[in-house]
Amino acid sequence: MNKKKSNSNNECPYKIVISDLDGTLFNNDHIVSNFTKNIINQLTQKGIIFSIATGRHYLDAKYTLEKLNVESILITSNGAMINDNDGTRLFLSEIPSDIVKSIASIKTLPKNMHFHMYTPDKWLVSEESSHLLNESHIGFHKSGFNYEVVPLKDFHLFSCVKLYFTTYPDQFPVKEVDNLYSYIEDTYGDKIEITFSNFCTFEIMNNGINKSFSVQKLLEYENLSPEDAMIFGDGMNDFEMLRDFPNSFLMANAQQRVLNALPNHPIIGTNDEDGVAKHILDNILNYKAKL
After folding, report:
1. CA–CA separation, 250 vs 90, rounded Å?
2. H or E element, residue 99
3. What predicted TM-score, i.e. pTM, was given to this entire model?
C-alpha cells in the first residue's frame, strides 16, 4: 500500500488529531454530536488528518468513521489492530492461545463479572447478559457489531486481539474486580498488557501493546513526528498515549485513576460539552487569529 503524504499546512503546528471515542469524542449518549462532526469535517478540509484510537473493535469503530464521512487509519482494540480506511490491515498483535486458555480457566470470577474476547473479526462472550441484550448497551447495536456466545473453554481456539472483563454500575463489586485485576496482573504481568478502560471494565492485550505503541506506528506511517499530533483521551487505556506525546489533553470528565496518574496534565472541557471539538476550533481552526 502506498504511503500517504503528510499535511503541508504551515499555518498550524498540528498535522494530525487523534482521539479516543468513549468518554472523549462520544457524548454521554455514545454518539458524536453534530457540532463535533462539523468541526472534524472542517479540520480534514484544512488538510489535517483525523484519526481514532479506541478500545472498541475495528468493525464497530469504522461505523463511527463512516458516519463522520472521514477517511482515516483506525487504531482499535487498544492498539492491537491498525486498519487503513479501506480496511487493509496494517498491524495486528494477538494474545498467545495458551495465555487465553489459562486466563479463561480462572475459577474464581466475581459474581456478575462477564468475560469477553475480540478476535480480528468477531466479538465473543461467554454467556448472555441482560445488559448486552439492551439496545442502549454503550452504542454497540447502532453499528450492527454484535456478539456471539461461545463457551469459555473454547475461547483459546480463536485468534485473540483483546480479552476483557466487565460488570455494570448496578452490579459493581469493587473489591472483587480489583482483586481479579491484581491476580491477573501478578500472574501474567510480564506476558500481557492490562488496563482499566472504565471503573468497571479492565482489558488485556498482548505484551507491549497499548494505544501509545500504535499511535507511534501511525505517525511513522504518515511520516510525522510526535510534536505534529494533538491527542485526546479520558481513561487509563489512554494513559500511555497521553503520557508519551507532548500535545495531549485529558477530558474534564476523565476517570479518577488517570487524573491521579497524570496530575499535572492539561485538561479541556467534558465529552458532553464537545470538549474535543471546541479545543480543535480554538487551537487549530482559529489558529491564525491567535498569531
Report:
1. 28
2. helix 97-104
3. 0.91
